[in-house]
C-alpha cells in the first residue's frame, strides 16, 4: 500500500507523538537524522519542539506520510531561507521513513512528494539537503535526481575516531 502524503498537517498530539516515535525508531535503527543510537524520546523531544516552533512561525513546513493504518511512517521538513539572495531554494531536513517500511520504495515516494510540494512554493527552484557520509545516502539521493554539490570531509563526529563527511545534495526543480 502506498503512503498518503500531507503537506502542513494539523499538529495534533497524535501527529506530534507519531513524529517523535518515528524519529526515535529511525535513529535507533542507525538512521542519519541528527542523533546516534541508542537514543530516547526524551533526547529527541527538544529537537522536535524546535521544528514545531519553526512551523508555528512559518519558517518550516512539514510533509508527513501516513501508512494504511494511519500511522506516521515518513517525514520531511522544509526550511526556508531568509537571505534575500537565497529565497529561490529550500532546505529539506529530517527525511525519514520508518524502518519497517524501508525497502518498499517509500523513500523515493517521499522525495517525489517533497519535490512536488516544493514546486508549489512561490519562487522555489531547487531543494538542498545534507547527508552523513559513510552510509551510501548520497548514492540513494543521486538515484532520486539529486546531485552532490559539496562535501566537507570529517565534519560530522559520530563517535570518537568516527568522523563522517557532510555531503550537500541539490535537486533542481525545473
Write up what this structure looks like.
- The protein is an alpha+beta fold and 174 residues long.
- 30% of the residues lie in helices and 34% in strands.
- It is built from four helices and seven strands, in the order βααβββαβαββ.
- It has helices at 13-28, 41-56, 106-119, 137-143; strands spanning 4-7, 60-66, 72-80, 89-97, 126-132, 147-159, 162-172.
- A seven-stranded mixed β-sheet has the order 1-2-3-4-5-7-6, sandwiched between helices.
- β4 (89-97), α3 (106-119) and β5 form a beta-alpha-beta unit.
- α1 packs across α2 (41-56).
- It is globular and about 35 Å long.
Radius of gyration, whole Å: 16 Å
Total of DSSP H or I helical runs spanning 4+ residues: 4
Strand content: 25-35%
Question: How would you classify the helix and strand content by structural class?
Answer: alpha+beta
Overall geometry comes to globular
User: Runs with pLDDT <50, length 5+?
Assistant: none
Strand order in the sheet with the most strands: 1-2-3-4-5-7-6
> SSE order, as H and E?
EHHEEEHEHEE
- Counting DSSP E segments of at least 2 residues, the number of strands comes to 7
Mean pLDDT across residues: 97
What fraction, in percent, of the residue positions are helical? Answer: 25-40%
Sheet with the most strands, sense and barrel status: 7 strands, mixed
- Terminal Cα span: 30 Å
Compose a concise summary of this entry.
The protein is an alpha+beta fold and 174 residues long.
Amino acid at each position: 500500500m502506498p503512503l498518503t502524503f500531507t503537506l502542513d498537517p494539523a499538529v495534533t498530539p497524535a501527529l506530534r507523538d507519531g513524529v517523535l516515535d518515528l524519529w526515535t525508531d529511525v535513529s535507533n535503527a542507525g538512521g542519519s537524522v541528527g542523533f546516534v543510537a541508542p537514543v530516547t524520546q526524551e533526547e529527541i523531544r527538544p529537537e522536535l519542539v524546535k521544528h514545531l516552533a519553526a512551523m508555528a512561525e512559518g519558517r518550516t513546513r512539514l510533509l508527513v506520510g501516513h501508512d494504511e493504518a494511519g500511522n506516521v511512517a515518513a517525514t520531511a521538513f522544509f526550511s526556508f531561507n531568509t537571505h534575500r539572495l537565497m529565497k529561490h531554494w529550500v532546505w529539506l531536513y529530517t527525511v525519514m521513513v520508518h524502518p519497517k517500511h524501508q525497502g518498499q520504495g517509500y523513500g523515493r515516494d517521499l522525495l517525489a512528494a517533497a519535490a512536488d510540494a516544493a514546486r508549489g512554493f512561490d519562487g522555489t527552484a531547487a531543494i538542498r539537503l545534507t547527508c552523513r557520509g559513510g552510509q551510501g545516502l548520497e548514492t540513494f539521493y543521486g538515484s532520486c535526481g539529486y546531485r552532490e554539490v559539496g562535501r566537507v570531509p570529517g565534519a560530522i563526529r559520530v563517535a570518537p575516531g568516527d568522523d563522517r563527511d557532510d555531503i550537500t545534495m541539490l535537486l533542481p526543480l525545473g
